Amino acid sequence: MEVHFGTRGCAGNSSTMEFQLPDSNWTPGLVFAGFVITVGVAVPAGFQVSIINAPAEYIQAWCRAVILTRFGTWLSDEELNLLWASVVTVAILFGVFISIFGGILTCKFGRKKSFLICGIVLALATPCFLLCRTTSSIELLFLGRAIAGSGLGLAITVLPLYLTELSPLKLRGAVGVLVPIGITAGVVLGQVVGLDQVLGDEDSWQYALSCYALLLVFCFVPYCWLPESPEYLFKVKNDPEGAVAAIRKVFGQNSVGDDYFKGVKVDHVDCETTKSMSLLAVLKDPSLRLPLVLLCCMSAGNGFSGINAIFFYSVSTLERIGLPANEAKLVSVGLGCVNLVCSACGPYLMARFNRRPLMLISCTACCITLLLVTLMIIFVESVTWFAEASIAAMLLFIIAFQIGVGQIPFFIGSELFNLDARSSAQALGSLGAGMSNLIISMVFPIMQHAWGAFAFLPFSIYCVMLAALVKRYLPETRGRSVGDVALLMAKGFRAKI
Description:
68% of the residues lie in helices and 2% in strands. By secondary structure, it is mainly alpha-helical.
């Protein structure tokens, strides 16, 4: 009896049977691929999020001096703040815009080459950062930030797809969370490198911005030993032999036989014929509407849950509750380290616990801890120990965030969408995450100035709404094939999960 695998490219949902990798635990090949993908691109991408914060006062002073020298204009504090906001925001803007193209890249060039493109884009920003001070060019600083933001946007789309398609069903979540672990590690590394005691002082900040390039060695050097996604090779490129070779790279030479795909036929239509329709087709497909809403809302939770408000403005928030500037920076780094430790627990949690309860617990706990942070900052002058308690509440919030909201959205797309729609759906999910980050970076300072501690309340409300959405519509995906999950959501918002 012939087994039939159908695909009509990158847009749509036509697979009649599930593609399955061999049932396996962690193998040397899988560990190697996870390490290279995480350290080679995810860590440098996360580095871009935080490195600009600690040396900000020195870079601002340099910008003011360059403007004065070149144009004879002395920037006021308001003008300097506007210029600096543009430097910070340009990376987020380009990350949001370019993330959409991650789906096109993975469809046209495959997961492995798209990973390489992410590394190349990040590498292109390095000379801009190194030379901007030597050439007294604020334009190069802007260009470097734009390129680095583009690399981050691509990485958020490409890396989860690549990792989850290399992993067996039972390890899909554990492998998928390597991306947020790498990004979190990059954020912490950027916080440490940006300290005055390291490279973030007045004379060395350009080296702080560009030293992440050393990590890109882990992207370029081992690249030829990385496998392509077996599922991509088999179902998109119609290359069963290549898929078998890729599986053996990940799981060992004896993991599958030469006849692993014997009797399997692929109705192959190349991705290039539908690449211009892929995003639109996913948006128009009624059967994909519910999983797409779930993916986008959960991805946006990375920003709207409040984590970026905590970290983007942690120093100013800690100063607001009475800490000196130097202590506030150190406590901020400590919060980042706690975030990394909690993120590192992700593979254990995802391998042993279901997605729905983790998301529900995470959303609920985030809401409660944000309310505690709000109350303690409001009454910090009335109750002496509320300053320390508010820091403890921030720590609890970080733990709550990393239980589910900070981990699951990175890989849930691979559990909700078949291969044909996965790239475009992941790109749209990354767009949701990027838009939430952009909105927070632009709006939260205004909210904080106008509302004070009450600026954290909208994040609590979003966490409640996300919990309600998850409880009502998200099926349990752990250990289930994508086809089974799709059947559960086939009726869209009328489905009973």
